Amino acid sequence: MIILLLLWLVQWIHHYLNVYPDQDLHQQRTQMLQELVHSTVEPSVVSWEAVLSTALQQWLFWAIAGALVLLLALCWWLKERICEVNSSRDSESEESEEENPAEMNMIWIFSRRFQLSVPKLVSRRRVVQELLSDLLQVSHSLFSDSFFPVLEPVIGVGSACEGWSPHEEEDVIYCMFVPLKPPHGHAFHLEPDTTGEMPQTRMRIRVGHVCTCTGKQPDQSKLCFLHHSEQELKRKQVTSLLHTLCTGPYLDGEKIALWFQTFVISAWSVVPQSHHYSMKVLPSCRSCKMKLVKDSGRSLLVEMVFSVQQGDSDIFLSSQPTEAQFPPSTTWLESYAVAEAKFFRQVAMQAPRHSCHLKCLRLCAHLLEGSGISVYALKTTVMHLLTLIPLSEWQHKYLLMRVDDTMHYLRCCLEEKRLKHFFFGNEDMPEEISLPPDFQEAQPLNLFQHLVQDPAAQTEALKKFDKLQYHLYFGF
User: What pTM does this model have?
Assistant: First the structure.
């Protein structure tokens, strides 16, 4: 288009310089001679008009030349811009002479088709964490004189807080763990729940009273539950946690969820973000789910899951059951979500810039849709590979190779009907991850144990997986 414009401009200049001077300038010169003969104007004035006429012609020439220069500069700039876009089709890729152009083009196709660029997860996660921090501050001032559980600062867990998500942007759920600490005069005791057989460890949290008469700074305003009579406690002190959010002596996840949901609804107007977001508490029996809608119409889905830390480790007990397991409300399931989030933070600090491990997760999650393989099994596979393959080999240019490694690893696990849990008996566990002492000696849980018990399910899983692999390599 620019070349055609330049050709037209050159033709127009040529036409002007060759046609108009023969006609218009000839008429102007004739008129000027007539004025010289018949006019009574002084010769100096006539000479001045001739100078102006010549200057006007020169100005027109330089104006046209300047326009040509600008057009040529614009053409050069567009050429450079096109080269820049082509060379950085994916801005996260690093330039290297070893890069295969065909592979880079395929990576670009995958990125466009599956929208591999991570949504604005980081900025939105910060918004959620700031909002919940303000909400918990309100709870501390409101329940400071009560015996409800103490709500610790939230911990972001799940794929959205790890920096990737298998969902589209509008469906992303920002999951936050709310660690619970016992209130004054109470203690939590973790007990194994042996009432049923479940692959995931089950625990119950027994609530007991502790003596508050002694100590470095005993609270004189609160009576000791162990050394004061029941009548005096009823008359002078608010109800114990054992009589509010427990069923028997055990902490009840459903009662805690209902208590916190009621608090959120009543305290929302006090939170500063209430001026910018409307809030709706969504139905949930073991957690607190909220939908926040901004004035612009943009929405955020938030889920607050109540948890209790196991000692000083990164392993927590969670009130939220899994999709396939719905235990009693006094049974809490062992969760590794905090340790997983910590693992991905460590990888992000040590991996090369623009590492492809998050895109690999997101791409494989799309590819495995409908395969029956859970997102958790995929994430476990990638975590294993991140400890087996040097982080230097996770540069963006190796994305397709890492995707192939992931699919191959999963295929082998399906054949062997065994996928080891990442946090049990793993000799390659990073030192930064704090685990209970018995985890290193424990036998790894098999995430594919159901395939051992059902050979037909394994055959069907392999069939679906092979079909997905065919579409991966030949579907583009």
Answer: 0.74
